[in-house]
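Lecture notes, continued. The same structure-token format from the folding unit now serves as the input rather than the output. Read the line below as a description of shape only.
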């Protein structure tokens, strides 16, 4: 059974509860108010219950910690999973980018989240250059061009840059990759023979048009007048 107590000489309440493995725990809530200490105790008990059931994920743990911070300080702890952050970033781009650009961004984000699988539910800080590189390699294996793959990585660079600017991560994992080599589309050039053939076709067409005009009978004005 969970409870609160206060040690002699200490201004903080102590949370007493059972851990997931059955052991008893006594942890300082760092709260002077009993009501605030009770909020911390409830969150700790809930966390241990999830751990006991095997349903505790990192994302869930971060949210519980965020709840504790919010209950005691009034401000939630900033936390984003990879999937959550990319969705929020996309939402912002919908207001600032052309529809076609937003659609392209959405496709890249969707493919990247699908590639990550369960890792997409980890804290944003867990994404590494290896995750980005493996995604790009998989896209390449699907037959996508180097240019298309580079554009996909450029999209992720933008998303993680925004997270860096807002302080959710300290570095951008997508910036660690170098761009893939790709062949620029070459413009075709005409050889002298091609030019000569084109001129022959053009000349022939002009002659046919002139012949058609020359052989067209003049309109009968007398018939129109009657």
């Amino acid at each position: 059974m969970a409870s609160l107590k206060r040690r002699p000489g200490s201004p903080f309440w102590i949370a007493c509860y059972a851990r997931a493995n059955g052991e008893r725990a006594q942890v300082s809530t760092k709260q002077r108010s009993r009501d605030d200490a009770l909020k911390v105790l409830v969150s700790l008990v809930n966390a241990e219950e999830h751990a006991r059931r095997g349903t505790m994920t990192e994302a869930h743990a971060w949210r519980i910690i965020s709840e504790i911070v919010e209950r005691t300080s009034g401000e939630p702890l900033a936390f984003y999973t990879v999937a959550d952050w990319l969705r929020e970033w996309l939402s912002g781009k919908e207001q600032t980018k052309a529809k076609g650009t937003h659609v392209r961004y959405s496709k890249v984000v969707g493919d990247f989240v699908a590639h990550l699988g369960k890792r997409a539910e980890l804290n944003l800080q867990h994404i590494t250059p290896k995750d980005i590189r493996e995604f790009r390699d998989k896209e390449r294996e699907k037959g996508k061009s180097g240019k298309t793959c580079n554009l996909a990585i450029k999209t992720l660079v933008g998303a993680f840059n925004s997270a860096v600017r807002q302080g959710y991560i300290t570095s951008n994992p997508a910036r660690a990759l170098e761009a893939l080599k790709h062949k620029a589309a070459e413009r075709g050039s005409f050889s002298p023979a091609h030019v000569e053939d084109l001129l022959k076709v053009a000349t022939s067409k002009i002659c046919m048009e002139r012949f058609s005009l020359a052989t067209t009978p003049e309109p009968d004005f007398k018939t129109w007048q009657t």
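Point for the exam: The CA atoms of residues 3 and 223 lie 114 Å apart.
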